[in-house]
Design brief:
binds uridine-diphosphate-N-acetylglucosamine, four-stranded mixed β-sheet, 25% strand, UDP-n-acetylglucosamine1-carboxyvinyl-transferase, Chain, 30% helix, 2 domains, globular, 23 strands
């Protein structure tokens, strides 16, 4: 099993250009089966979740070619509506295939989706919404079969603005007759990116980025060339890495509009952050300040996907920080590893109280999930001595060459097998 070996204590300095967003490219890849044509997708990140989605598309009968940073998905020969169990279990994002397969084939056969173990992650909201569109759902031999003789548009109210449910309904609605309206839709920028991709293929979707999305069913779509948006979570992770190590970073390729909450928090912690023509520039103080209470929330709130990284850098801040995790119920798993490194953290339900220490010690720690793993890397960069982060396959699901990028910024980090 591969691991990162980090010798901490170096300030990160230099420039970093973000990769394409994991949470945008995966639904876009699923959506590519609606085109019955070629989609040319650029800016995609080289991460293992993308590799898994490529395998799923190939298994469904699509041809997927990647060269020179360009991915071409040709879905003309797609002939299957069943996602193999092992691939479905590998990642959560395989869930988007339900909506896409229903729209294209009227049927989707899947097993329960996998992904990070950061909570129960049910799909009841997806199921409730799809049922309103004429989908019948039954469980057969451990598989879930979604079938619709005729998908129809519907007025759908989501009880919670779920990212996955919003995207799944958008995809299914493409194959439905009439208009579908999603109320209380998630507003994440990646949903706008999915809308932009589909509209570039000839779809008629309006409202993404707001809580009301209107989709007019229309298939087949035509092919397109599309560049995926920059990864705001990777951007936030690198800003926090620079902040935690007392460094200075020019971040390129990230839209500052989508990083507002993160920037505000880092300023509050004592960093100087400026938006320049080239991107976002950050300079950290010698020691960060604790920021009081921080609560995760759906966009435009503070992203749950940056909570672990922020918690890591607050372990050495001056003062106390309280984190309230409101999105996923089991997202503090990485904290027991931070405690091994000397962090002072008390967990009480969905609250974590972090009292800033003078330093962290290098230790052998294990990544429990993707973002929790990134937090442990940040802690290793901040700590004194040698940190070994095990189970980095979780981290590599979502970060493209993390150790190489950090090394380029001056970190002492190596990847060993
Ligand atoms: C997406 C992101 C993930 C991010 C999360 C929150 C992708 C591939 N993943 O995940 O990185 O951490 O948004 O921004 O884009 N819920 C239900 N029932 C459902 C669906 C969700 O109860 O049917 C709950 C979940 O358990 C969770 C909350 O709603 O507590 C948010 O989930 P959701 O927004 O759906 O997140 P994901 O789409 O899984």
């Amino acid at each position: 099993m591969a691991e990162y070996i980090i010798h901490g204590g170096r300030k990160l300095q230099g420039e970093f250009t973000v990769h394409g967003a994991k949470n945008a490219v995966l639904p876009i890849m699923a959506a590519s089966i609606l085109t019955c044509d070629e989609s040319v997708i650029s800016g995609y990140p080289e991460i293992s979740d993308v590799a898994s989605m490529k395998e799923i598309l190939a298994d469904l009968g699509c041809r997927v070619k990647c060269a020179g940073g360009i991915m071409i998905v040709d879905s003309r020969g797609m002939a299957c509506c069943e996602v193999p169990d092992d691939l479905m279990k590998r990642m959560r994002s395989s869930v988007f295939l339900i909506g896409a397969l229903l729209a294209r084939c009227g049927m989707a056969v899947i097993s329960r989706p996998g992904g990070c173990s950061i909570g129960k992650r049910p799909i009841d909201l997806h199921i409730k919404a799809l049922t309103q569109m004429g989908v019948r759902i039954e469980e057969r031999d451990g598989q879930i079969v979604f079938a619709a003789e005729r998908l129809h548009g519907a007025d759908i109210y989501l009880d919670y603005p779920s990212v996955g449910a919003t995207e799944n309904v958008m995809l299914a609605a493409m194959g439905a007759s009439g208009e579908t309206v999603i109320h209380n839709a998630a507003k994440e920028p990646e949903i706008t990116d999915l809308q932009n991709y589909l509209n570039s293929c000839g779809a008629d979707i309006r409202g993404a980025g707001t809580s009301r999305i209107v989709i007019r069913g229309k298939l087949p779509l035509h092919g397109t060339c599309y560049r995926v948006m920059g990864d705001r979570i990777e951007a936030g992770t690198f800003l926090m890495a620079a902040a935690g190590t007392g460094g200075e970073l020019l971040l390129k390729g990230a839209d500052p509009r989508y990083a507002k909450c993160c920037i505000r928090l880092l300023r509050f912690a004592g960093c100087t952050v400026k938006k320049t023509d080239e991107g976002i520039w950050l300079k950290a103080p010698e020691r960060l300040y604790g920021t009081g209470t921080v609560k995760t929330a759906p966009y435009p709130g503070f992203p749950t996907d940056l909570q672990p990284q922020f918690a890591a850098i607050m372990t050495c801040a001056e003062g106390t920080t309280t984190i309230e995790e409101t999105v996923f119920e089991n997202r503090f798993g990485f904290m027991k590893e931070l405690v091994k490194m000397g962090a002072d953290i008390e967990i009480s339900g969905r609250f974590a109280i972090i009292k800033g220490n003078d330093f962290l010690y290098g230790k052998r720690v294990s990544a429990p999930d993707l973002r929790g793993g990134a937090a442990l890397v940040l802690a290793g960069l901040m700590g004194s001595g040698r940190t070994v982060v095990e189970n980095i396959e979780h981290i590599e699901r979502g970060y493209s060459g993390l150790h190489r990028e950090l090394w380029m910024l001056g970190a002492d980090i190596d990847r060993c097998i």
